[in-house]
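We examine the record.

___
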Amino acid sequence: MARYGKAAAKKVKRAMHERKKGKLKSGRSGKKVTSRKQAIAIGLSEARRAGAKVPRKKSSRGTK
């Protein structure tokens, strides 16, 4: 079974294209995004907000 839906892939694809063109900006600071990983993260968070099938973020809890 696929972990990510088609809508999530579309959002990530759009974010990657925007990053290549230099049009993708980060949320709070509004700075240009140059990192590939950051572009993917932005695309996935947009997909998550839109209700697409995206796995939950990993929690940042430390191990005991």
In short: Residues 56 and 62 are 17 Å apart (CA to CA). The radius of gyration is 13 Å. The longest helix spans residues 6-21. The chain has two helices and no strands.
